[in-house]
Inverse folding.
């Protein structure tokens, strides 16, 4: 049983403040109330499995019974994320993939069909093709950058549209409002993976989406310390359906991870702003480099969907990719030569991470499918961190010189 | 091996060569082993190795090394709180019959330690104003004066000591200097010839109001001399806490910069306010310590104090009326905090001492957090309206 509705809490906070709150204030204060018994300013880590009830008649009077169903520390994080995404409610999970499978389970049954972004994260692709396909669910991997392609893929049995924008790793954008309109016209829920930009830069529910999904492992935690996921819904109805899956399958987030994530979110905006500024500087450096054949970063004016990036989000994020003269071998040499950037799979953390999607994150996607969506063999993905930007540029410059 | 033993001696997971975790593990182990007693007795094992986590722990060691580097010194010892750090720096350098100099503008628990605790160990003290260089010189010249403990800037009145002048006097008279640099921050004051720095890592270092910790930082010889004291006191910082502080430090510079910007905005706003007699923040051009601070520090931090032109009741009402500032006695966290200074930090001072420190019934200390500064300014204005209209 979830405790009191989030919408009421937002109203109470705004009333107390006497004005609408800025995002950075919400990222610090939303969802967290001083502990009533001690005044501790932070929500404690409620490391408990069960909750004593005053009487049978008053069962669940305090909102908690068993920590798989709800835990006060996790509730604080869920309420904060719901406020940040301007949603009705949120559920948290052990990983981002657990969050995505909760949406899939809540929306799809055998015989149903779903439209998924053709450049979805490799893990999402694996979940659809290797697991849910086995249970009689059909998928169309569509180019969601084209609203027409999405409209053309809709069938009578379509029950979910799942997009990811910017997409991982191509950074291709989906027009959230346009796809939401198609979804609404046919009464299909539109779920958006907002991991790359976070609600600080992009709020899909405001643009018409029904569900937002996150890997909290990335920018929310931001410190490479925890893995977790979250789903925020626009309506109580969707929350109820997804919360049922969360409780029934038990893919929950631990209070300790929730607590660390709550702390991480307090610096979300300052980290995002700095990491994005670093990313733009690096993208500009790479674009001017003679050995770099191509750079894709939504903040570059040369980015094909730059106008859409500007109109549907408040920032461009800290993910970029580039290709080097010399293809796969040159790309691999760069990754071995960098010293400040770490060769690792995660993204969104304070450390700058460099990835070769073809051999790492998207290894399971078939060659033809990769070629079709633009994941070329020489593509190098950068998740730009908080290091000094000159150190990062010097590192990449030296690595490029070694090619 | 029987299963009853296996649950004690569990399998280890070794990473393949070259396959490394990006973030160091939290070493929760109390104990560390060597392959043989002979191996445990080598000089390297005894000095650089790990045996028992009260003495040394790799996660805590990582924090010590990072803080030493940030503070431009060789080495450091982590302890459970900032006060434990000061306690270690004082006890490790004093003997019965010695005299300690400290300042009336300083943090109340430091005064309490020197005035109430140290006499139990036969240690005398002299309390002066941080700006009275003549009295400082005279007291330093006494044979029994062995140590100075002070802060830059001081808590809660944000007074800036003239480090060149005071440290030169200390050097001439062979007085050991212990600077609690919590308000200055780990990146500040390292170029000055201070013997030992102490920090409450609870504040800007961890930054999120979630853990407590302290550290003593100094050159190799001084830290080596303190180490047996630390081990015997057992005021160990646990590895989970050390890890959280290491995590906090990753955003240290971002946070510190923002704390400074917002504090300056608020200080400037308060300065123009009819109800405010005086604002204490070295970042303000009008502040008496501004020139010194500009020369000595990079960034003046997120704490400021100001004197309201009113009596105690109205001061308390103003503090209570603030909604975005929690009334608590800490600083340097992402959340904004407020404290009525006389009640929280001035109860041990006589009227004359309080006057010397600049503390009145109307003194309020703010620790400016990372909320949007416009929200904080609006909250302050609301509290002024509610209290004084």
């Amino acid at each position: 049983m979830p405790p009191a509705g989030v919408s009421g809490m937002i109203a109470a906070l705004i009333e107390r403040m006497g004005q609408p709150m800025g995002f950075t204030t919400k990222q610090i204060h939303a969802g967290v109330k001083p502990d009533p018994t001690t005044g501790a300013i932070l929500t404690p880590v409620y490391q408990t499995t069960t909750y004593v009830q005053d009487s049978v008649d008053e069962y669940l009077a305090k909102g908690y019974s068993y920590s798989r169903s709800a835990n006060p520390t996790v509730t604080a994080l869920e309420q904060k994320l719901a406020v940040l995404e301007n949603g009705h409610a949120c559920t948290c999970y052990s990983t981002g993939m657990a969050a995505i499978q909760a949406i899939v389970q809540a929306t799809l049954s055998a015989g149903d069909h779903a439209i998924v972004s053709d450049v979805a994260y490799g893990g999402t692709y694996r979940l659809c093709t290797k697991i849910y396909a086995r249970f009689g669910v059909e998928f169309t991997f569509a180019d969601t950058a084209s609203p027409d392609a999405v409209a053309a893929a809709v069938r009578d049995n379509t029950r979910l549209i799942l997009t990811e924008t910017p997409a991982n790793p191509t950074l291709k954008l989906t027009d959230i409002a346009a796809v939401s309109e198609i979804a609404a016209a046919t009464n299909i829920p539109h779920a958006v993976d907002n991991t790359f930009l976070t609600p600080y830069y992009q709020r899909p529910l405001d643009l018409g989406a029904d569900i937002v999904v996150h890997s909290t492992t990335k920018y929310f935690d931001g410190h490479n310390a925890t893995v977790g996921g979250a789903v925020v819904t626009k309506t109580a109805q969707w929350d109820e359906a997804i919360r049922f899956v969360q409780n029934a399958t038990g893919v929950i987030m631990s209070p300790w991870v929730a607590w660390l994530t709550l702390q991480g979110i307090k610096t979300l905006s300052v980290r995002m702003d700095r990491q994005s500024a670093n990313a733009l500087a690096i993208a500009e450096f790479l674009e001017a480099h003679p050995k770099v054949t191509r750079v894709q970063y939504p903040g570059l004016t040369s980015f094909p969907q730059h106008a859409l990036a500007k109109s549907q989000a408040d920032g461009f994020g800290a993910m970029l990719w580039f290709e080097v003269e010399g293809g796969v071998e040159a790309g691999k040499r760069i990754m071995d030569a960098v010293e400040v950037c770490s060769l690792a799979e995660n993204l969104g953390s304070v450390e700058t991470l460099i990835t070769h999607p073809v051999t790492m994150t998207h290894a399971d996607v078939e060659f033809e499918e990769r070629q079709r969506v633009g994941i070329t063999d020489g593509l190098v993905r950068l998740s730009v961190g908080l290091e000094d930007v000159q150190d990062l540029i010097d590192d990449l410059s030296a690595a490029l010189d070694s090619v | 091996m029987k299963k009853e033993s296996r649950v004690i001696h569990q399998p280890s997971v070794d990473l393949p060569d070259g396959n490394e975790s990006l973030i160091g593990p939290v070493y929760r182990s109390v104990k560390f082993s060597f392959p043989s007693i002979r191996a445990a007795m080598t000089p390297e094992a005894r000095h650089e190795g790990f045996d028992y986590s009260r003495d040394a722990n790799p996660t805590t060691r990582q924090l010590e090394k990072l803080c030493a580097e940030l503070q431009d010194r060789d080495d450091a010892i982590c302890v459970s709180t900032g006060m434990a750090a000061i306690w270690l720096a004082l006890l490790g350098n004093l003997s019965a019959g010695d005299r300690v100099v400290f300042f009336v503008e300083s943090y109340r628990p430091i005064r309490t330690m020197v005035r109430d605790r140290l006499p139990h160990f036969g240690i005398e003290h002299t309390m002066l104003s941080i700006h009275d260089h003549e009295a400082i010189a005279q007291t330093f010249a006494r044979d029994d004066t062995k140590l100075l403990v002070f802060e830059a800037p001081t808590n809660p009145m944000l007074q800036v000591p003239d480090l060149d002048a005071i440290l030169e006097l200390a050097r001439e008279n062979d007085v050991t200097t212990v600077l609690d640099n919590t308000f200055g921050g780990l990146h500040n004051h390292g170029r000055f010839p201070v013997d030992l720095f102490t920090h409450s890592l609870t504040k800007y270092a961890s930054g999120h109001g979630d853990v407590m910790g302290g550290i003593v930082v100094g050159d190799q010889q001084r830290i080596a001399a303190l180490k047996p004291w630390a081990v015997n006191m057992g005021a160990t910082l646990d590895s989970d806490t050390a890890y959280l502080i290491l995590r906090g430090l990753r955003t240290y510079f971002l946070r510190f910069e923002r704390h400074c910007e917002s504090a300056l905005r608020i200080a400037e706003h308060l300065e123009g306010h009819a109800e405010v007699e005086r604002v204490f923040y070295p970042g303000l051009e009008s502040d008496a310590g501004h020139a010194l601070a500009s020369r000595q520090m990079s960034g003046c931090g997120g704490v400021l104090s100001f004197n309201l032109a009113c009596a105690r009741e109205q001061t308390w009402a103003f503090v209570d009326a603030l909604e975005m500032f929690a009334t608590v006695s800490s600083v340097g966290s992402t959340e904004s905090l407020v404290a009525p200074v006389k009640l929280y930090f001035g109860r041990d001072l006589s009227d004359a001492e309080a006057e010397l420190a600049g503390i009145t019934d109307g003194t309020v200390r703010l620790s400016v957090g990372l909320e949007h500064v416009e929200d904080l300014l609006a909250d302050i204005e609301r509290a002024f309206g509610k209290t004084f209209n």
Q: What stands out?
A: Chain A touches chain B at residues 16-19, 21-25, 28-29, 34, 39, 41-42, 223-225, 263, 266-267, 270-271, 274, 342, 344, 346, 350-351, 353, 386 (CB under 8 Å).
